[in-house]
Amino acid sequence: MLTLSVDTLLQVTGGTVLAGSAGTMVNGLAIDSRQVQPGTVFVAFAGEQVDGHAFIGQALADGARAVLVTRDDETVREAFAAAERGESVLVRVADAREAVEALGRYHRERLMCRVIGVTGSTGKTTTKDFLRSVLATRMRVVATAENRNNELGVPLTVMEAGADTEVLVVEMAMRGPGQIAHLCSISRPTDGLVTNVGVSHVEILGTEEAIASAKGELVRAIPASGMVFLNGDDAWTDTLGGFAVGPVTRYGLSEEADVRAEDISIDEDGTPSFTLVTARGSAEVHLPVPGRHNVYNALAAASVGLYLGLTPEDVVSGLESATFSKWRMETFQSATGITIINDAYNANPTSMQAALSALADVPTRGRRIAVLGDMAELGSLAELAHFQLGELVPALAVDVLVTVGERARRIAEGAVAAGMVPDSVRPCVAAAEASEVLDDLVAAGDTVLVKASRVMGLERVVEGMIEPRVQPSA
Questions:
Q1: Structural domain count, the chain
Q2: Do 223 and 205 belong together in one domain?
Q3: Which end of the chain is more exposed for a tag (fewer CB within 10 A), N or C?
Q4: What is the pLDDT of residues 93-128, one digit of tens each?
């Protein structure tokens, strides 16, 4: 956890004291007043919808010892004075985000643990979740929580690590060129893992080659003393491997992989089982999450665990006991007997195909229903990518297709063009309309997959199936 004096905080952030004593010590940092603990630094961000300066009093009441603000006015000073404790201090910084990043860099310089950077077009969050569970069988681990994988999330994750942390796992998102390099400048990973390169973000980067180069920023950041972990079955692995200055471990299904899976099968509940084959022996694995594609995510985590000295038995224990971030192949039954696979956090063509394959593998007493929404950031490929995805739907045992959004209408058109009965395809404009359709459509025993890019808000569709509307009596 971040621990420093306010004097040092001023040096690191370039801040100035507006009120209070600079001699006090602080522990931890929060950008949400609801997460303030005694001794915390509270950073008041002035967002478009919420201004953190309005919560200065609450943060101090909850024990914040230092408050970082970006403006100095009567309202801010009065809020501080009204709630001030003897040891509290009010500090003004020029830029709140840059201050958080600077504190993250400061804290990282004092950490002695290994830092594993994780990125990729698909699967990085699930891989991070597997990795956290695997490493925790023998080590003290801190890993990215929720969606803290950007310019704010990465330094916050770094500052969660303490002197007793043995491994820090940092997930890194990418919106454009230079972003991962920037995140690496904060987290300074000792080792790096790239799950794959796909067509996500092509709207921003233009080509798949440019995406590979951007993901390769993590590989370039790994020193010669570290290890780079790559999906040996990905088409861009040779390119990414060429960026490495140190050794590379490849995982996958081919015999050439350093860590591989053999004899993959799908269990009765739709979850994969396989034989984990390593240089240190083999072991049987039964994953706790549906989807054949999750074998790759598990292999990625296994590769890192073995590299850090875990036994195959430790790795299996961690994989089989892993828990996952919400909205990632989150599977449960509603009170009305519907099996719901909630994968509504994000989507691109690769992850959509993987989710549909997982739906096809899940046994069901009723129908398989796919609720698919728009995929964002595909640029000029958007129309074709949605249509081509739709062409795959009839071959993947989908009985009913519900699409949500204007781009996703092309999924519906592709499915019909590939032979799906038009009456089994229901295009919708928005999540609310899809919920109404599903109210009339879904029955006990059905299995429903919900997936789209985050901007579509399809978690509302899931909520509608969990808590269906009660129709008024006549």
A1: 3
A2: yes
A3: C
A4: 999 999 999 999 999 999 999 999 999 988 899 999
Q: What is the DSSP string of 87-108?
A: T-EEEE-S-HHHHHHHHHHHHH
- Same domain? For 168 and 214 the reply is yes
The answer to whether residues 190 and 212 belong to one domain is: yes
**Secondary element (H or E) of residue 63:** none
Q: How do strand 114-119 and strand 339-343 relate by DSSP bridges? A: unpaired
Q: How far, CA to CA in Å, does 154 sit from each of 157, 181, 196, 467?
A: 5, 12, 21, 35
Q: Report the CATH number that the domain containing residue 28 is assigned in CATH.
A: 3.40.1390.10
178: tokens are 């230079």
Task: Determine the Cα–Cα distance for residues 262 and 284; give it in Å rounded to an integer.
Answer: 10
What does each C-alpha distance from 32 to 35, 36, 55, 371 come to in angstroms? Answer: 6, 7, 9, 34
CB under 8 Å to 260, separation ≥6 — which residues?
Answer: 251, 252, 253, 254, 277, 299
Whether the predicted pLDDT of 170 surpasses 80: yes
| Residues 211 and 85 placed together within one structural domain of the fold | no
Q: How far apart are CA 383 and CA 352, in angstroms?
A: 15
Backbone angles phi, psi at 404, to 5 degrees: -130, 115
Q: Report the DSSP pairing between strands 259-266 and 272-278.
A: antiparallel
State the Rg of the chain over Cα. Answer: 24
Domain that holds residue 32: 3-96
Tell me the two tokens of residue 431.
Answer: 């999540």
Task: Please choose, from the candidates 148, 166, 165, 146, the residue with its C-alpha nearest in 3D space to the C-alpha of residue 157.
Answer: 148
Would the pLDDT of 357 be above 60? yes
Query: The tokens of 457 are what?
Result: 């808000």
Rounded CA-CA distance 219/402 in Å is 39
The answer to whether position 325 is within a domain reads no
Per the structure block, which two tokens stand in for 106?
Answer: 């400061």
**52 in a structural domain:** yes
* Percent of the chain scoring above 70 in pLDDT: 96
Whether the CA torsion 216, 221, 225, 229 is positive or negative: it is negative
Given a cut of 90, whether residue 350 has pLDDT beyond it is: no
d(CA 176, CA 173): 9
Q: Which of 96, 50, 88, 104 is nearest to 71 (CA)?
A: 96
Assigned domain for 471 exists: no
Does residue 156 have a pLDDT over 60?
yes
